[in-house]
Amino acid sequence: MGLTVLTSTVVIACGPFFPWQLLDNRKQTLLDLPSTDTFSQKIKNLGVVTAQEKQNLFSADNVNLLASEQTTCPNTDEAYKKAATLFHDKQWEEARSAFALLAYNDKNAAQQVCAKYTLGRIEKELGHFEDAVQSFNGTAYLVANGAPDPLHLGIAAYGEAAGVILDQIGKRITTPYNPKDDSGGITLWNVGGVKEDSLLQLQRAVELYLKQVKLGENSGLSSIVIILKGLSDPKNPDAKLLLDQAVHNPLLRKILLAYVLTDEIDYRTYSKEQTQNILQAFVKAGIDQKNHYDDLGSLGAFAYQNNDMDKAQVFAQYDWQKNQKALDAWVLAKIALRKGDKEKGQEFYHQAIAHFNDGSLRKDNIQRVQGERAVLTLSQGNFVQALEELWPVRDSYWGDVVYLAENVLTPDELKRFVNIHTTVPRDRQAVCDQEVSNENYYDQDTDKYYGYNLAGRSMALRHLLARRLMRAGRIQEAIPYFVTSADANCKGIPQHVQLERDYIKATTDMRRSFWATDRAKAAWKAAVILRRHGMALMGTSGYPDQNPGDYAYGISQMMGPVHNSNNKPWSVSTEQVRTGASWPIPNHRFHYRYLATQDVLYAASLIPHQSQAYAAILCHANGWMQDTSNYGSPPAIYYYPNSDSYESAEEHAQVSLWKNSSYANAKSVALYNLYLKNGPVVSFATHFGYNCPEPQFGAVTKVKRDLFWKKLRSSFHFLKGQ
């Protein structure tokens, strides 16, 4: 079937290749160039097959299991069986003659395919290498033209033919497999003495493997990787000689560039030495006008990734002047930024975006370029424009959108942006939500997989603005931005609207009601609303609240210009000032619980200390703080889980956990001490903070009256004593 498949683990490309946020390390974002090619797709596009091959040949990776389990050629006659006996007895010459007759007998087409394939194996054993290649190719030809192939020998024959060719220009070695430690079983290819036709033979072998890849045979792809690994071996002088020739070959040149620019970990089997060896071979080839290279942009990207900026600029600039590809402009933008020229860098970013349709960048890199331009715009102090440029790629870099919207733009700037770019979609199928979520609140636009779509991001931004206005005390302004796509389908008032109205009334009554007890009852109601629904009403998507969003713990990252020194050259002081001004007070996770506790303390100051209501509301508030102290989350907005050192990030997280717990615990202790100092003896005092009863504000009037008469009697006793 060709060369042995490489042992590897399938993983999703992530981390440095597809950063979820661009602003957490702006230097890396703007100056590093991520991988620009997907190896498997790039290679698949290079394979050439005929319509007959595509129709009748197919990959053994996707065969019918019943057919793949067969080990012998079906429906064979006595002549075939006699020939097979000669083959197994290694009587090669006699077997060759017997199978040659069978291979040209078209009475049994399936048997003819088996005979042709076996003839190739025999000729290989006899050292008739070119004949073997022709027999294997003949096998594929028979199948492509309609011959039955239950053993799928047609596509396998291409790999066998390629292997025979490779053996003429090098040596294949497969290390023994060791099941104890799952090691070995890997095939290596060492280039031998380079001959006049070595490059041509190498191209022939690669073309055959490309046919397998095009038809869906993964072993062909892995075989090509093994060839490229052997070809780039810096310790093999013969390989270096053949590599110098290969970079001039149009097909091999494209494959080499795809190999070193790939982001698929399955196929990143080369070392840094190999990469440098390939780069030097390309550099040695130089720019030859007569060759009409159409891949110098990729070569510029390759040089940039290997920190050879001079060569990167030469190749990218040359290709830009001739072809004006988006990839060229992207590389030139980064080179300009390395030189400190932000204006020129911005110009090349605009050019890259203008040439997106040329096919030189895949979809994820197109989004990356758009995001990088926004980062550069932010570094120049153009905050609203940065969000404008980031908005089209909001689905990829939502964490960056959240940072700008929640921490950098002013509420009024964000409000204008939201009014221009978002609307509330009408959804006649949406069910009116009559249940207001608790702390595990998710934005209304999440689907069952907690994933956003672009329309959903618009709703998420509207809710983010609503919560930010609530935190700023602009409650009436916030209400329209809480509207959901299902509100129009509600028969009555949507629950979230009623909640917002109740909160507004409670916060109004707690300041304006005439009687102190009424003010206390309103303050308690406001506190309960915040405790139960504070995340939905005013929680931050980033730190410190880490909600709501499409993950249970928020966006999990945040990026400020101060904490990470890599961000300093790429920010302006105004950003830092704005970020600090946007912090919630206090800057701790579930910050609204602390606001609820403040309302409780206000209510407690308005009612008699000896009342049950006084003890009950302090009991509840104490429980809220105890519950909050169980959550560990960084209290500062400048927290970096993606710091350079895993240990330092872990240490910072532990310190943050301690600080957050200590802050909430201190509030809990203060509330309990306040009760001990002033409160009455109650049955729930022994488990203060747990199973607290509802406050009985109706009994407050009687307590006040009793206190009044008690004080009056004390006054009479005092006067009588005089």
From TrEMBL:
InterPro entries assigned to the protein according to its UniProt record, in alphabetical order: TPR-like_helical_dom_sf
Gene3D superfamilies: Tetratricopeptide repeat domain (1.25.40.10)
Superkingdom of this protein's organism: Bacteria
Protein name stated in the entry: Tetratricopeptide repeat protein
